[in-house]
Amino acid sequence: MSLDIDALRAQFPILSTKVNGKTLTYLDNAATTQKPQVVIDALVDFYTQCNSNVHRGAHSLSDEATRRFENARSNIQTFINANQREEVIWTSGTTEAINIVANGLAQKLKAGDEVLITEMEHHANLVTWQQACLRAGATLQVAQINEIGELDVADFTAKLSSNTRLVAFPHASNALGTLNAINELTSIVKSQSDALVLIDGAQGIAHCKVDVQAIGCDFYVFSGHKLCAPTGVGILWGRYSVLENWPVWQTGGEMIRTVDYQESTWGVLPHRLEAGTPNIAGAVGLGAAVEWFMQQDLDALKAHETALLNYAMDKAKDFSGIQLVGTAKEKVGVMSFLIDGTHPGDLGFILDQQGVAIRTGDHCAQPLMKRLGLGGTARASFSIYNTFEEIDTLFVALNKAKNMLA
């Protein structure tokens, strides 16, 4: 099936917005994606038709809200091929999902234990494990990357040991675009240790088909807003046998079984890890986004994104004064770069004046930037609704910015 890009873009109302008098060229998708009308409608419809709290209401609105909320959970289960819907835990996003796992792991770690991550981590998948190790007296090991931004698999393997309790790595790097071979890495871990495996899927979920059973990992986490869904909602998927007795993250309403003044007992999955009133509308929106994705030709979308990235990287090769940062053989649609004699922040400002939205800075990856000897980069990131013409617009804007800043 061929991709009708005009019909696809027509489903995203913000793409017709004017910025500084110019039609928006939105190339900041690694930070957050735009939302199709079907997701916006799901939010509006929830608030106008059945806004209520879920699970325990004794009235029709609550029943309908619960139905939509739990149907969204089932959509997620199908989308990532979870074995059981109870393995799908609602969170506020990738960061909270990682914190739930790290909080539980910190209660199990002891001095001498190790957690292994990589040099390409987002702060959410670094600082969280760092702090868990500090609390427990455990050691944080870091696997190296090579000069083009690929994981050094030999170093990764060498740093696994009988003391490794958990290994965490990104599906794809938000700063470099590097796409990791997550099935292979998980297999390496499982063949050489008893460690749990967590995959930070924030940058992978929108670009790759995810089958958590085929991957063989123990946890896969992601945020809705990277997947054309609302902000403030995300997913912790965990293998049932692992999550079933995982230490609770927060206590309060919904997650309990019994409560007395002196002690309480916890409920069963998924509710034992979902204390308090959830982001119900956000969950409904994420369910709608996932349902929308499942109706698309995912292979065609992936092929389009790959073509966009290749087109941009090829244009960069012919652009005088540009330095690409992160040139791994396998990448998602992220192009990080520097322009000789310019500061990324200045580039971002001048591009915005031309209606082009990119991201600049360290991309929540300060240790990675230090590893590369950089203070930060400019980053253009592509999604399914971007076009080759928009990449042309980016390079015209970059040329203008370069001449102004020279």
Task: Write a structural description.
The protein is of the alpha/beta class. The chain has two domains: 5-30 and 297-405, Aspartate Aminotransferase, domain 1; 41-294, Type I PLP-dependent aspartate aminotransferase-like (Major domain) (Aspartate Aminotransferase, domain 2). The protein is built from 14 helices and 17 strands. A seven-stranded mixed sheet has the order 4-10-9-8-7-5-6, with helices on both faces. Strands 13-14-17-16 form a four-stranded antiparallel sheet, with helices on one face. Strands 1-2 form a two-stranded antiparallel ribbon. Helix 2 runs antiparallel to helix 10, helix 3 (60-80) crosses helix 10 and helix 4 (94-106) runs parallel beside helix 5 (127-136). The protein is globular. The mean pLDDT is 97.
Q: Which sheet architecture does the biggest sheet show?
A: 7 strands, mixed
CATH class of the largest domain: Alpha Beta
The chain-level mean pLDDT equals: 97
Distance between the termini: 46 Å
* Overall shape: globular
Number of domains: 2
Based on secondary structure, the structural category is alpha/beta
Q: What's the helix and strand layout?
A:
Blueprint: H1 5-9, E1 18-19, E2 22-23, E3 25-26, H2 37-49, H3 60-80, E4 88-91, H4 94-106, E5 114-118, H5 127-136, E6 139-143, H6 153-158, E7 164-170, H7 182-192, E8 196-200, H8 212-215, E9 219-223, E10 234-238, H9 240-243, E11 256-259, E12 264-266, H10 280-294, H11 298-317, E13 322-325, E14 334-339, H12 344-353, E15 356-357, E16 359-361, H13 366-372, E17 377-381, H14 388-405
Parallel strand pairs: 3-15, 5-6, 5-7, 7-8, 8-9
Antiparallel strand pairs: 1-2, 4-10, 9-10, 11-12, 13-14, 14-17, 16-17
Helix pairs in contact: 2-10, 3-10, 4-5, 11-14, 12-14
